[in-house]
Amino acid sequence: MLKTFIKSRKEPAQPISIEKYNAELREAEAEYEKGDYVTHEQLLKTIQTW
Questions:
Q1: H helix or E strand, kind and range, residue 48
Q2: Domain ranges of the chain
Q3: Which of 1, 10, 22, 47 is deepest in the core (most CB within 10 A)?
Q4: What is the pLDDT of residue 35?
Q5: CB 31 within 8 Å of CB 37
Q6: How far is CA 31 from the centre of its chain?
Q7: Distance (Å, rounded) from C-alpha 47 to C-alpha 41?
Q8: Does the model's pTM come out above 0.70?
Q9: What is the C-alpha to C-alpha distance for residues 17 and 8, in angstroms, rounded to an integer?
Q10: N-terminal to C-terminal alpha carbon distance within the chain
Q11: In whole angstroms, what is the distance from residue 22 CA to residue 8 CA?
Q12: What are phi and psi of 15, to 5 degrees?
């Protein structure tokens, strides 16, 4: 599965700066704290409708 995921990329992954990495982490943490995420159970229910 991982090989399929990697092969499906149209462009190779590009390195990012530590500043950008930290900014993305802060953004993700803020989303989590606001409750803006999907639980495992919610994801399983969604997958069943595909």
A1: helix 40-48
A2: 18-44
A3: 22
A4: 96
A5: yes
A6: 12
A7: 10
A8: no
A9: 24
A10: 19
A11: 26
A12: -65, 150
